[in-house]
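TASK: fixed-backbone design
INPUT:
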């Protein structure tokens, strides 16, 4: 991850205040990370050579089609709930089929390149189990990345635990999409929030610089763990993911009749007081993640404000102003992480359906921010109005430039290590 960050930073022009669209760069960087960490594959999408970026380009186009079409599917799904006759209409189109074919082709390429080495290493470890947990054994080809695990599942001895090639391909597509598009979106919005709040950015940079990079330039696991535990960095990431959740809405289908309890009674359209919500099997439930993350009853009157300090206050049990963290409070949010719905799960609605890679994503985001914000200063033209564009993933665009599509133009300049956070050299 550090190498990818430095690659992106080193590509900046020498101009002290250049303007760059950070969205595509972050998307390429996170694709490289999920490729190497999840699949042991080097997409090399940050490299300048065209042949290295061919797969990245194909993936980007495929994701674009899938996400834009998925938005239409979501609208059609809602309409089909109210108008059953619409269920007879097909929602798939040729562009979607071509995009899925591209994803399948890349997935097959990943499997083909890794299958023989992984299976050979697996056979070796079966013959020599004593080496299974050794460092040498892990490096010999067995692999603990996601793709290696999926390939081994294809030849599992127990039939019920065996995955078909089609199932593996579906998993690869899911993890490629979720593993880099959501992370790049989160990073982009975090840099946007920091650019709009220079005092927060300076304070964060001071904390990041309090942790020195190892002399040899090679970060150890202990060093990476120290990064993820920096308190203000953690607060900034939490606040950004609250205000700018990469997935703004999700849906669930009820598998059985049920009654969902609610903390605050409401009046329905017929004027009746309701203290619960009754659902029937097959009902489609929309979960407004972004709305819940900005609910003033939960987060207070400043719910729309980017204020990382609210997360530091949770460490003080006597601070009763931070309602989401009060034990037993009726409006206490329930979620997998940070009392938020950003990663789903941990609540009666989402149940156990949550992001299984959230810890990896959080570590990835924090490490990217460590290298980027530590060395670079981000600012934004106050005249630019950035708005959210939701095609499954929440991405930014410039309101006055809709023809340019998704973008996040930020002004970036290097901040020398011998310069104070107020800009004074010493």
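OUTPUT:
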């Amino acid at each position: 991850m550090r190498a990818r960050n430095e690659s992106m930073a080193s590509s900046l022009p020498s101009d002290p205040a250049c303007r760059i669209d950070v969205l595509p760069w972050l998307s390429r960087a996170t694709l490289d990370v999920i490729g190497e960490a999840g699949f042991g594959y080097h997409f090399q999408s940050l490299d300048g050579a065209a042949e290295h970026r061919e797969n990245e380009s194909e993936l980007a186009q495929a994701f674009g089609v899938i996400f834009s079409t998925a938005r239409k599917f979501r609208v059609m799904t809602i309409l089909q709930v109210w108008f059953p006759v619409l269920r007879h209409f097909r929602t798939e189109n040729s562009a979607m089929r071509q995009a899925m074919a591209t994803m399948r082709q890349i997935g097959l390429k990943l499997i083909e390149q890794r299958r023989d080495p992984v299976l050979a290493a697996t056979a070796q470890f079966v013959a020599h189990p004593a080496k299974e947990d050794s460092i040498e054994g892990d490096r010999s080809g067995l692999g603990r990345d996601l793709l290696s695990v999926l390939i081994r599942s294809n030849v599992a001895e127990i039939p019920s635990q065996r995955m078909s090639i089609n199932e593996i391909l579906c998993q690869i597509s899911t993890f490629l999409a979720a593993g880099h598009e959501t992370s790049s979106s989160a990073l982009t919005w975090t840099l946007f929030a920091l650019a709009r709040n220079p005092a927060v950015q300076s304070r964060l940079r001071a904390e990041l610089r309090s942790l020195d990079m190892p002399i040899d330039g090679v970060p150890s696991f202990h060093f990476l763990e120290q990064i993820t535990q920096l308190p203000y960095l953690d607060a900034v990431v939490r606040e950004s993911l609250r205000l700018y959740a990469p997935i703004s809405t999700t849906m669930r289908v009820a598998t059985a009749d049920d009654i969902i309890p609610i903390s605050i009674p409401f009046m329905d359209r017929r004027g009746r007081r309701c203290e619960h919500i009754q659902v029937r099997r097959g009902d489609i439930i929309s979960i407004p993640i972004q709305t819940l993350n900005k609910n003033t009853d939960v987060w207070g009157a400043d719910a729309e404000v980017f204020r990382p300090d609210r997360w530091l206050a949770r460490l003080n049990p006597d601070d009763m102003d931070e309602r989401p963290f009060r034990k037993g409070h009726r409006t206490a949010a329930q979620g997998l992480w940070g009392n938020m719905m950003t990663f789903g799960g941990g609540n009666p609605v989402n149940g156990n359906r949550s992001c299984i890679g959230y810890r990896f994503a959080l570590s990835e985001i924090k490490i990217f921010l460590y290298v980027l914000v530590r060395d670079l200063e981000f600012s934004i033209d106050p005249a630019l109005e950035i708005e959210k564009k939701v095609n499954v993933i929440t991405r930014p665009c410039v309101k006055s430039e809709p023809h340019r599509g998704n973008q996040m133009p930020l002004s970036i300049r290097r901040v020398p290590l011998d310069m104070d956070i107020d800009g004074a050299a010493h």
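COMMENT: The two ends are 30 Å apart (CA to CA).
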